[in-house]
Amino acid sequence: MPAKFKLVFVIGFLLTCPCPIIGQDASATARRQEKPITPQVAEPTLRNLGKAKNLYIGTCVQQGFEVGKDVLAEHFSLLVAESHTKWDKIHPEQDRFDWDFTDRMVAFAKENKQEVKGHALVWHGAVPAYLSKLSSKELDKEVSTHINTVVGRYKLKEGETGRIRWDVVNEAIDDQGPGLRKTIFSENLGQDYIANCFRIAHKADPKAILIYNDYGCETLSPKSDRQYEMLKGLIAKKVPVHEVGLQMHVGFYRNGEVNIKELQLNVKRLAALGLKVNISEMDVPIGALPEGSVEERLKVQADRTKEILAACIDIKGFVGVTWWGFTDMCTWCSEPEKPLLFGRDLQGKPAFHAVLEVLAMKKDKRR
């Protein structure tokens, strides 16, 4: 740079510099630079609001869940595989296990300080073909091998923090009559197979939280009475069942209306047994709601979601809620049902904002 330009540059810099270098009053400069600092307040998230109330906020995930990884990490404190920890997926052949999806999900959860739940170790709806070829004695041994191998693989290692949950037995209560549903397990292993599954899982991982999960047992009904009596009996026998999952597929209820008073009474009686209680597979398909425009039904969806959560979250023993998916782009319901908290564009819907609202409310404002 030519010398004369250097001189002009230096003089210009000294005259315009905000620092008190030459001919400037330092106190005046300081006053001019003093500006109020607005503290950065983090936006509320489902998982943070849930944590403040000792609730986990969960979602199930499927193949391709990474497309919504930012939403998952920000808003959910628990992940559960919708399909890939079921027996027919994770153990499709007697001598072969498929760990790929569950390993990826668990790694993602650890990276984002999330809990994990396996769903479901024993369920009649996910039976691999090879089980039907086994004798009762062989089936009993295979159940033990399956639970020990799967639970053992994801047991927390020494020094690891977090928590592992398992839906040990899923949907074992008969829909219509007394007793258990007739399945390959109840027919070949007898009525005690549920207790045995829980004992095997507990031995495989004594620190895991073990859950019985079912549908149609959310409110007071003959089926929920049968579930209550079964769980009461297991506890009396000191079977290590720690928690019960109420699925809450709201579309199964007429006009999507859940009897809130009965829901509360049911949660309270289960908690009185010493069990923790969670909503395990929640979705609110708009097709089950009263007729109206999509926008009107999304508003009703938000209202239904809010009233169900408000009814439960302050009950002692209620520990969390899991949605059966987080985005409408991936749901077991048909696409027009829009049953979840986030749309296909991964933006929060009215139901999402309703959940934020109810989690943020003080106890006496929720009802």
Describe the structure.
The chain has an 8-stranded parallel β-barrel with strand order 1-2-3-4-5-6-7-8, surrounded by 5 helices. Helix 12 links the parallel strand 7 (276-282) and strand 8. The chain has helices at residues 3-16, 26-33, 46-52, 69-75, 87-90, 100-111, 136-153, 184-189, 193-204, 222-236, 260-272, 294-312, 350-360; strands at 56-61, 78-81, 115-123, 164-170, 209-214, 243-246, 276-282, 318-323. The protein is α/β, with parallel strands linked by helices. It starts with a helix and ends in a 7-residue tail after the last helix. Helix 11 packs parallel to helix 12 (294-312).
Keywords:
367 residues, 8 strands, 13% strand, globular, 8-stranded parallel beta barrel, 13 helices, alpha/beta
List the helices and strands and how they pair.
Elements: H1 3-16, H2 26-33, H3 46-52, E1 56-61, H4 69-75, E2 78-81, H5 87-90, H6 100-111, E3 115-123, H7 136-153, E4 164-170, H8 184-189, H9 193-204, E5 209-214, H10 222-236, E6 243-246, H11 260-272, E7 276-282, H12 294-312, E8 318-323, H13 350-360
Parallel strand pairs: 1-2, 1-8, 2-3, 3-4, 4-5, 5-6, 6-7, 7-8
